[in-house]
Amino acid sequence: MKIKFSKIAQLEYEEIIYYLYDNFGKEKATKFSDLLKQNLKQVKQFPESFSFFQNTDKRKFMVNPYITVIYYVNKDLECVEILNFWFNRSNPEVLLQHL
User: Fold this and answer.
1) Contact 16, 85 (CB under 8 A)
2) Which of 1, 43, 54, 94 registers the highest number of CB atoms within 10 A of its CB?
3) What is the pTM of this model?
4) 79, 1 Cβ separation under 8 angstroms
5) Complete DSSP assignment for the chain
């Protein structure tokens, strides 16, 4: 399956990388990017292996203890759409309103 990022997810990813780079250095930004790539590789091979987010048709995986990725498996288009990067300390009800 192909993986594509929504516009919002792409912006959120860039913000996370810039934040990590500016505040913690290149090594932390690269580590986050590498962890994301590892998870995306698994999602690409087994898109339904991760649990559902709340009571929705969206799925989730944790990149690290602070960030969770929300995605949707579109079987008709045979792709996985990355919808959001979610900060785990945030209220999930806010995210549910955006999905």
Assistant:
1) yes
2) 43
3) 0.86
4) yes
5) -EEEE-HHHHHHHHHHHHHHHHHH-HHHHHHHHHHHHHHHHHHHH-TTSSPBSTTSS-EEEESSSSEEEEEEEETTTTEEEEEEEEETTS-HHHHHHH-
Is beta strand 67-74 parallel, antiparallel or unpaired with respect to 79-87?
Answer: antiparallel
Q: How many other C-beta atoms lie within 10 A of the C-beta of residue 63?
A: 22
Q: Rounded distance, CA 36 to CA 32, Å?
A: 6
> What does the block give as tokens for 34?
């590498």
- Give pLDDT tens digits for 63-85: 999 999 999 999 888 899 999 99
